[in-house]
Amino acid sequence: MAERNFIPIRIAVLTVSDSRSLADDRSGDVLVNRLEAAGHILADRKILRDERAEIAGQLRAWVADAGVDVVISTGGTGLTGRDITVEAHRDVYEKEIDAFSTLFTLVSFPKIGTSAVQSRACAGVAGGTYLFALPGSPGACKDGWDSILAPQLDYRHMPCNFVEIMPRLEEHKRRK
Q1: Would residue 56 count as lying in a domain?
Q2: pLDDT, tens only, 119-142
Q3: pTM over 0.85
Q4: Within-domain flag for 5
């Protein structure tokens, strides 16, 4: 089989927090540093408060933006009353990537034990754009990127990856 060349993709990073700014957004920094080190392109970066409509609105704007292939959010995936990132993501998804949550739990469990049950990391697809919601800790962002997203967002990863099916995500909209 012929060796595949790396394909850089355009990734937007969203931090959901009532208290963070760009100056102290360690989790967003982890994601930006890792995606750029991998050879991908930072398409945009924002911080929003824990407001469901605002988060969903930003996700929809990035889904509609041809310059964004993937959105990774960090924060708001817990169980408290202000943790509404998962609900905002699900407001936007056309299809959920159910196994992402399970795989994230499997990656987290050896490091944080049963506390992994409190994460509601999730993923889905909308308008041909991948959307991933990671917890708000830098460690969770490292784990999510290193163990799941880095390989799946690398066209060279075999036997399959998210990049190779990107052109087919909206094939249901084509005329027959």
Answers
A1: yes
A2: 999 999 999 999 999 999 999 999
A3: yes
A4: no
